[in-house]
Specification:
Elements: E1 4-8, E2 15-17, E3 34-36, H1 38-48, E4 53-60, H2 64-73, H3 75-78, E5 83-86, H4 97-106, E6 114-118, H5 121-130, E7 133-136, H6 140-150
Parallel strand pairs: 1-4, 1-6, 4-5, 6-7
Antiparallel strand pairs: 2-3
């Protein structure tokens, strides 16, 4: 039995919204500009409840400022992940090979046991080229079926 690490893109799989408003200028009297994507959160929770999934991470092209915003105002998302890599604050963003290399080194991951879920076909192709198993997030039912077929959930 393979134990997997599952990596979820945050913007487009787990959350969406007006990221330009997710910064230090946000005031709690305003509506939160970021909303969770229920289907993505359901998949994340299924992975966290699986004995075949060791950890879940969120490599994202969001900036560190956006991640700090999520920690403060959308903790139910960041609580579910074992870690977040804000590639938007680095020199390389997905689909750049170095973004995947950085994530794998930062968390000591073997790409061949990683499943990467993203809503961008070009990012999925990059993950596959890096040695990960890429799953396109377009329909949650298809993603769940692929995770079941892999033995991840």
């Amino acid at each position: 039995m393979t134990n997997f690490t599952v990596l979820f893109d945050i913007n487009g799989v787990l959350a969406r919204g007006n990221w330009s408003l997710a910064d230090d200028s946000y005031h709690p009297t305003q509506p939160i500009p970021i909303e969770l994507i229920p289907a993505g959160i359901e998949i994340l929770k299924a992975c966290n409840n699986s004995s075949s999934v060791l950890k879940t991470f969120g490599p994202t092209n969001c900036t560190q400022q956006h991640i700090t915003f999520l920690h403060r105002h959308v903790p139910e998302l960041t609580f579910e992940l074992n870690g977040i890599i804000a590639a938007g604050s680095l020199a390389w963003k997905k689909p750049n090979y170095k973004a995947f290399l950085f994530a794998s080194h930062a968390y000591k991951l073997d790409p061949h046991t990683c499943i990467f879920i993203d809503d961008s076909p070009i990012n999925i192709e990059a993950a596959n080229n890096f040695g990960m198993i890429g799953i396109l997030f377009d329909e949650s039912v298809k993603v769940m079926a692929q995770l079941v077929e892999l033995g991840a959930i």
